[in-house]
Amino acid sequence: MSRPERRRAALVVLAAVAALGGACRQDMHDQPRIEPLQGNRFFADGSGARPLPAHAVARGHLRDDVALYGGTHPDGSLLTQPPMPVTRELLVRGRERYDIFCAPCHGRLGEGTGMVVRRGYKQPSSYHVDRLRQVPLGYFFFVMSNGFGVMPSYAPQIPAEDRWAIAAYIRALQLSQHFEAERLSTEQRSRLDAPAGAQPAAAAH
Question: Least CB-packed of 27, 57, 140, 176 within 10 Å?
């Protein structure tokens, strides 16, 4: 191949590369779009940011389980039991969350004398009064979710499952202070009556 022919071949290759490069771009990296909070004359209000459609729900936030998220039966009455099995794991989780979020006001035993109250915050009612011992369990879930009196809603801080765990633990606290000793077995009664730190005879080695 002569020198002029090589030059023509090189020019053809360069022209092809240039044509292909221009065809691939087509300004796809800079398509027309509306930037956040940018105005737009297409809409009557002049705003490019459009309001959400009515009744729109973010993915994963439908919360159509009325019992879990509302604490009620379909007829609106409060649940008397959590919408999940009451297990040891649930109560342990409830105690952990209670000690973090509730004990500062309500106290570790639910008597309403937590450290925040001792520093001047309004004292809440004891969980051991007859009124609160008789309310359905869903009442505690409802109060945690919506607030009551000076107590704010804890729904943003505590997931629904943990609110139920706390409610179950509150009921366990109530039972611990009002359980009838006659319902205990002989071994359980001996453990209850044993002096603090003593080892019951049935369990001694």
Answer: 27
Q: What's the average pLDDT block by block, 10 residues per block, for the chain (205 residues)? A: 74 69 62 83 88 86 90 95 97 98 97 95 96 97 96 96 98 90 84 72 49
Residue range(s) defining the domain that contains residue 91: 80-178
User: Taking the alpha carbons of 90, 92, 95, 101 in that order, is the dihedral positive or negative?
Assistant: negative
C-alpha 188/C-alpha 35 separation (Å) is 69
**What domain count does the chain have?**
1
Let me know if residue 92 belongs to a domain.
yes
pTM of the complete model: 0.68
As a whole number of angstroms, the distance between CA 116 and CA 26 comes to: 65
Q: At 154, list the tokens.
A: 């804890």
Single-letter code of the amino acid located at 20: L
